[in-house]
Design goal:
Radius of gyration: 40 Å
Oligomer: single chain
Structural class: alpha+beta
Helix content: 25-40%
Number of helices: 5
Number of domains: 2
Distance between the termini: 166 Å
Length: 248
């Protein structure tokens, strides 16, 4: 027969295991009841590192950033520089544009599929920031959502307005495909307006001062005048010698 203490240990272990199972079941019921958004891995093995856009950075030729009632538009010039066309028509800061484009074309952290009814949980039902761009004669829209639970990453939804009919990775009906991206994208889109405008070069900011044209000649004239006076004095001295000789 088993000892009384052994029986009590077995009963305690069974009770503890039952409590853990009950707790996990309750958490699962809470998630399914809507207390937490339903998230499933996207097809194609969760697409770890999948890019936001199917284009390279150098293929992007137009860019429009909309945020908080403000619109910033840019166009790529033939020489590779970027021109701001809205709100000002001026040369854009190349570093700012390049940083944003690198964030848009870098691999994402992961890809998720969520119910469209839960887009608000990711800040994507009514996104506060959107990016429209043109690449290879196609237009794309990126909706920038809120941060994830860590606060270091963002949720983004990519909408291709000119899709390739051969592509078959579209999300099912009532499902939305969203991306988790580096927080660097947030830094790029929140840059203040003045940071998108190219700084003036030193030559443009202050032209070099010119030396007055009459300063050097004046000195030369004075020197000539002094030399003339010296010549006159010598002439006077020469005339004085014959005079003295005659007197002798």
């Amino acid at each position: 027969m088993l000892k009384r203490s052994t029986v009590l240990l077995v009963i305690g272990a069974i009770a503890l295991g039952g409590g853990v199972l009950f707790f996990e079941r309750q958490q699962t019921d809470n998630r399914q009841s809507g207390l937490e958004p339903t998230v499933t891995a996207a097809p194609n093995s969760a697409a770890e590192g999948e890019p936001l856009l199917p284009v390279a950075e150098q293929d992007i030729t137009q860019l429009t950033l909309k945020r908080s009632g403000e619109t910033l538009s840019f166009r790529k010039n033939e020489d590779g520089t970027w021109q701001m066309t809205e709100p000002n028509n001026t040369l854009a800061e190349s570093g700012a544009v390049a940083f944003l484009l690198s964030q848009l074309t870098s691999p994402t952290v992961k890809t998720l599929q969520v119910d469209t009814a839960n887009l608000a949980d990711f800040g994507l039902a009514e996104p506060q920031i959107t990016i429209d761009l043109v690449a290879q004669s196609k237009t794309y829209q990126l909706d920038i959502g809120g941060p994830d639970f860590t606060g270091d990453q963002l949720y983004v939804q990519s909408l291709e307005n000119s899709t390739d009919p051969q592509e078959s990775d579209a999300a099912p009906v009532n499902q939305a495909k969203i991306y988790v991206v580096s927080g660097g994208l947030g830094n790029a889109v929140e840059r203040r307006t003045s940071g998108w405008i190219a700084a003036e070069t030193p030559a443009e900011a202050a032209p070099a001062a010119e030396t007055p044209a009459d300063s050097t000649p004046s000195e030369g004239t004075a020197s000539e005048g002094t030399a003339s006076e010296g010549t006159a004095s010598e002439g006077t001295a020469s005339e004085a010698i014959p005079t003295d000789g005659t007197a002798n």
